[in-house]
């Protein structure tokens, strides 16, 4: 019971990670063989030293520049939508079957980038004016994830301290990923699935949910009104144009957005190299370093560098995305082996982590993780 309580306490406080599944083989084993564990000891540097290494202009937030990204994303999204509405019905059926999936993917990517900008508003990285960052349209990252420093009390992708079933078969792993990508985000918002446990039911749409503080409740009311208004508009469009129209133009791209959000969040905080800490060892800086930068190729720019500069974001969340890469380059010499970057293509990494990062096990007092690569002795089911 004491051991279970210790693991439960870890589950309440830590971010996502796991230890290696002993059922690894072939290409997956090769992809993991180079991974080196991030030190679980106290870093030899301070947050102040990290900030001093960052060029001063990286902390500057330009309202005009930030809005330019919003306008650009909205223009591209509108152009895609107009093209689909105005021209796709003119295409031969065999070309329409190709055009629609391309539209869904492209629109999903652009709208994910727009969500990332809302995410910046939630971290006060959009402008110097808090009222601007808090201004509707309200369904922003701030109102749905009110604690900007995820490493303090991470709200999503909380790891399992033990595993009840190891998905040895690829079909089971694929099914688990499909459920996570399709339903993970709405289940998280509605039922706090994969989120930090609370002493009562937690829902992101409930202003009185234990997720929020008293000062945040008004924001949730406004956010909920915005969601109801959007739903009503979609309902009216469905009445006049049909449900298939709404799903084709808006619904399917939204599914892609949800899938991208789950993928990005999951891979940011799930990696075999990352240590995690219980309440006896945790401190802010060590917790902030429990993340990894990922390479999404051309999508790095589309997603406004949310994935390949996330370490810097964890450390100084108010740096806008257009300065984040420069800040990342500046802090890497300071962080040294505490900085983690994985260039594995995100789709391969998603498959790998879904099979290998299943749960966490204690390596030493207060420190959890995988130990060294393929240290099967660390696994105790």
From TrEMBL:
Domain of life: Eukaryota
Lineage start: Eukaryota, Viridiplantae, Streptophyta, Embryophyta, Tracheophyta
Domain Fatty acid desaturase: from-to ranges: 189-340
Annotated protein name in UniProt: Delta(12)-fatty-acid desaturase FAD2-like
Chain ranges passing through the membrane: 69-91, 97-118, 218-235, 242-267
UniProt xrefs under InterPro entries: FA_desaturase_dom, FAS_N, Fatty_acid_desaturase
Annotated GO CC locations: membrane
GO biological process: fatty acid biosynthetic process
Domain Fatty acid desaturase N-terminal: 37-76
Pathway the protein takes part in: Lipid metabolism
Pfam families recorded: DUF3474, FA_desaturase
One Gene Ontology term of the molecular function aspect: oxidoreductase activity, acting on paired donors, with oxidation of a pair of donors resulting in the reduction of molecular oxygen to two molecules of water
Cellular localisation: Membrane
Family as reported in the entry's similarity comment: Belongs to the fatty acid desaturase type 1 family.
Record keywords: Fatty acid biosynthesis, Fatty acid metabolism, Lipid biosynthesis, Lipid metabolism, Membrane, Oxidoreductase, Transmembrane, Transmembrane helix
